[in-house]
Specification:
Layout: H1 2-7, E1 13-16, H2 19-25, E2 29-32, H3 47-66, E3 73-77, E4 80-83
Parallel strand pairs: 1-2, 2-3
Antiparallel strand pairs: 3-4
C-alpha cells in the first residue's frame, strides 16, 4: 500500500516494529516504533512518559516526510538517519 500511495507523488512514512519487513515490502521512509503489541507507546509508563514517547515518534515521522530521499531510509531517532 505504501508504494502505491508514493506512486501518486505523495510521500508516506511506514511506522513499524520490524524494520526488515518494511524494507522487504519496499517502504521508502521507515520509522521504527516501540514493540509489536504497542507500536506507538508503552501502557505501563505514566501518562507524561507515554506522551513523550508518542510525541517523539510523531516528530520523527514528520521529519521523515520532510526529508528528500533517493533510497530506502530508516529514521532511527531524532536527528539520526540510516540509509539502507
Amino acid at each position: 500500500m505504501v508504494k502505491e500511495i508514493e506512486k501518486t507523488g505523495m510521500p508516506v512514512v511506514h511506522m513499524c516494529t520490524i524494520v526488515p519487513i518494511s524494507k522487504t515490502v519496499g517502504a521508502n521512509r521507515i520509522v521504527p516504533t516501540i514493540a509489536i503489541p504497542y507500536p506507538l507507546g508503552n501502557p505501563s509508563l505514566d501518562m507524561i512518559e507515554e506522551k513523550s514517547i508518542r510525541r517523539e515518534l510523531v516528530e520523527r515521522a514528520i521529519l521523515a516526510l520532510e526529508t528528500e530521499i533517493t533510497e530506502q531510509t530508516v529514521f532511527e531517532s531524532k536527528g539520526k538517519v540510516v540509509i539502507s
